[in-house]
Design brief:
- With 60 residues, the protein is mainly alpha-helical.
- The chain has a domain of 30 residues.
- 68% of the residues lie in helices and 0% in strands.
- The protein contains one helix and no strands.
- It starts with 5 loop residues before the first helix and ends in a 14-residue tail after the last helix.
- The mean pLDDT is 67.
- Keywords: Membrane, Transmembrane, Transmembrane helix.
Amino acid sequence: MVDVPPPLHCVRNKQGFLILDALGFRFVFVLVFFAQPGINRTKDRLHLPGRHPYSTAEYP
């Protein structure tokens, strides 16, 4: 059995956190990437007459 000095334990733990941070960032990026078309459709609908709850335009 080989004893690993404590500073190397710290480096290994930090690398694990970096990997988790990278995976978390990738998850958020994919979530925003797939949500963007829905956000764009919603924004486009708000410009149609009568669609917005505060719009005074009548339906055609």
